[in-house]
Structures are given as C-alpha cells and as structure tokens.
Amino acid sequence: MSNTKASGADIVDWRPEDTQFWETTGKKIAYRNLWISVPALLCGFAVWGMWGIITVQMLNLGFPFTQAELFTLTAIAGISGATMRIPASFLIRLAGGRNTIFLTTAMLLAPAIGTGVVLQHPDWPLWTFQLMALWSGVGGGNFASSMSNISTFFPKRLQGTGLGLNAGLGNFGVTTMQIVIPLVMTVGLFGDFGGVSTQLVKDSGWIFGKIVAGTPTWIQNAGFAWVVSLVPLSILCWFGMNNLKTVSPNTGSSLVAFAKITYLYTLAFVPAIFMLYLYLPKPTGLGLLSMWVAIPLDVILALGMMKLAAFGEMKEGVKKQFAIFSNKHTWSLTALYIVTFGSFIGFSMALPLAITVIFGYQHVPDAAGVLQHTLKNPNAPSALTYAWMGPFIGAAVRPLGGWISDKLGGSIVTQVISVVMAVASVWVGYVMMQAYGSATPEQYFPMFLGLFMVLFFASGIGNGSTFRTIGVIFDRTQAGPVLGWTSAIAAYGAFIAPVVIGAQIKAGTPQYAMYGFAIFYAVCLVLNWWFYLRSGSEIKNP
C-alpha cells in the first residue's frame, strides 16, 4: 500500500473511489475528519444565529434600543454570514482542510467573547452591538468551507451520507443555540469573572415555560458560554484533522495558509458593510436600496473583490474556482438549494416572528369595521416554546435525506419534496389568512404549526438530496466550490424570509408571502425535472 502520510496532517495519496484503499485506509481517516467537523460546524451555526435570541432578551432587559434597531442586529448577522460563505467556499483548495477548519473555528472566539463584553454595557452605542453581529457572520461562513472539505473525503456513492451527517448534525447548532442560550442566561456560569447579573424588566421564557420579570439574568453568557466548547474544539481540529494534498496542493506553510484565510475573510466584510450601509434604514445606514437590489449587489461585490484582490499563487487558485460559474448546473442547483436550505434557515428565523404577531393578538374590527391587530390574545401560544421544533426536525432528517438519495438518486427526492413544499406553502398561507382575521387565532395554531413542521421536514430531506446531486454531477475539484457557492446564496434566506413575511404581515396579507414561496417552489420543480429527470436530459439523476 502506498504511503498515505507525507508530513503529519498532510495526506498525499488519497483515492476514495478505490474500494480497497477506502476500506483499508480511507474510511477511518474520512470519518475521523467528519466527527471533528460536526461539532465545529454546530458551534459556527450557534454563534451565527445567537442574535435572534439575544435581541429578544435585550428587549426583556430594557436595553435602550427600539425594536427596529434591534432588528438591524439579526439582519447584519444574517447578511454577514451569507456573504462570508462566498470566500469560504474557495478556502479549502487555497489553504487546506485542516488549516481552514482549525482557524475558522478558533476565529469564533472573537465574536463570542466580544458579544459577552458588549452585553454587559447596555449604555454603549448601538454600533458596538452591530459590530459584534457583523463579526458573528464568521460562524455562518464556516458552513461553506466545512461542506467543501467533507465532500473531498468521501467517495461519490457516500457523498449523500457524509454531507448529510455533517450538515444535518451541524444544523443542530440552530436548535442548540435556541435551547442553550435562554438556559445559560439564568446562572452565573463564570462567577465574578463573568460579570454581574441584571434583572428582567419583562417576562421571558425558554422551551419549558416562563421566566418571570425580576429574575436575575446574565445576558453576557449568550456569548461567553461558547468559549467553553470552542477552545477544546479548536485544539481537536488542529491535532485530529487532515489537509488532502490532492485537493489543496499549494497551501504553503500553516502560517501562509492562515494568512490566506484571514485575508479572504477580511475582504468579505468590506462589501457586507458597504451594502448594509446602503440598505439599512437611518440612522444606521442610508436606506436607499430594496432587499432585492441589495443582495445581488452584495454577491457581485464579494466576488469582484475576491477576483481583484487575489495575487500571486492565489490568483490562479481563485481563477480555477471561478470556472464553476460557466457551468449551467451550478446555477440550476443554486436555485434548488434555495428551495431546501434557503427555506430551512429562512423559516427558522421567521417562525418566532410569525407565531408572535399572528397568534399573539386578537384580530377584531373597530367601529368602522377595519380589522385591528393590537389587542393582546390571552390564549396566545409562546414562540419560545414552539419555534425550536421546526429547525430540530429539519436538521434531524437531513442525514436521512442524504441516505435515501444515495439509494434512489438525488433529483427524484428533490422533485417529491418540491411538490410537498409547494402544496404545504399554499395551505399554510390559507391558514395564516384565516388566523389573521380571527378574534380567536389560537384555534388555527395546531394546523399552522403542523404545516410548518411538514415544510421543515421536506426542506431537511431536500437539503440532503440536493447536496447528493452536486456530488454526483461535479468532479472532485469542482464539487467542493459548488457546494460552498450554493450554500452561500441559499444562506440569504436567513434574511429574505423574515423580511418578506414581516412585510406581508404588516400589510395585512401574510398569506401572500407563502403563496410567493409556493410559486418559486413550483418553478424549481419544473427546473429540476427539465435538467435531471426528463427522458432527454443531459444528466439523468437518477
């Protein structure tokens, strides 16, 4: 057997499609890298998504910011995380898997500690909190590099399983964060070192019930708590993971690789900051652009900066990665991944808002017969009690989606879930319309929640099937960047879904948001059939 190791973590000989090599050598190495990758990715999702919970608690603690100002924090984290995925999808080839996953995991310590510090100072200006939300985007970016990396370790026949496990278990970071953060805020985890508590001004809650006003709360633990897992995880990444020289032949020394990663990640902040300045309302920004202009502008600027700023050996590496854009399948699969992951992350962010606004109030006409939505509903379901269920289901079934797709073929699975999602979206829109016109909206809540669970289940299965298709259609050098790119564009769902649903609720027509999503799913259903399932298609999958 040829020598697999070259120098410690670097592997020169890597042939996962060779069955004998896979069984004797490859399998053990691939799964070791996978099992270290999963908790690192989980922490990335948690740090990226934590502002959704932190802002709710900032309101409950009486921080001196309006709801609109607090919304900018979740928007900034969402946009930043999606933008960071664009360079992250290119990092594995340029810097190596072990180097990239170690450094990007260790980088999470900065926003985790920084967030813990600023949350102890409610009197600090809004921009200090916005800076930490921006920095938390590193956690969102890590998904693209993590998936690019794991795809290189597994043979094509196991791509669905390997990627499904990495992404599915990693996606549990959303649920983990929604459960852990409200819990750690109730205890002084770090004694005097962790700072003092403040008292809740309003009732808060977590998945097991209400936390009453007046309870001492250590909101800073929302950031500090992740340090406990990030330090040992970073060490584990460094000593347990590998760089595949077949995928990343010219990484240079570890320090050179770290410099490339830091340089490209820093570049991603520039377009994100510029675009947010043009998009966000005053006083934070100029409020000039609509979301539909801002997001494409952000993507184009991020890609342009990468191309212009790459130098030396990196220039050639980036050029090779950009080859994915001349392949039409990159674009068709990007649309299909928006259906699946875009829906998963978007609905994860939007569901608490939808539950609170639609079911938290009684919708009764005034004397003139105009519907009012201001009277509190005494029988309202709590968003914090139910919102975690959807992301939990979506993450739990993702490995199942990969496994089924390995058996049946990715595109047939994507087709079935697209039908399910289109039907469920129309149905949930109809239920939202009924609830938003009712004095007792809670009677529609079981149906609403059930349909959203169907959407999460289908999107989770589809996450696995789409990634399986990418692994089949693209060769080993291009599959990683395509995985990263599609996940980057779909991550904008974290921003789009809450904004679209929120705007339609404000307009009094929440059903239109869901009908719009259903139309998009139907278009992608035709796209999937045309490219991968019809009898004359160029690539039949299955």
What's a concise summary of this model?
The protein is mainly α and 542 residues long. It is built from 21 helices and nine strands.
Structure, described:
With 542 residues, this protein is mostly helical. Helix content is 70%, strand content 5%. Strand 4 (204-206) and strand 5 form a beta hairpin. Helix 3 runs parallel beside helix 7 (126-151) and helix 14 (328-359) runs parallel beside helix 19.
Q: Over the alpha carbons, how many angstroms does the gyration radius reach? A: 23 Å
Query: Which ranges are low-confidence, i.e. pLDDT below 50, for 5 or more consecutive residues?
Result: 1-7
Number of strands: 9
What is the residue-mean pLDDT, rounded to a whole number? Answer: 87
Distance between the termini: 34 Å
Major sheet summary line: 3 strands, mixed
Count of helical stretches:
21
Enumerate the strands of the largest sheet in spatial order, edge to edge or round the barrel: 1-2-7
Strand and helix order: EEHHHHHHHHEEEEHHEHHHHEEHHHHHHH
Structural class: mainly alpha
Strand content: 5-15%
Query: What is the approximate shape?
Result: globular
Share of residues in helices = 55-70%
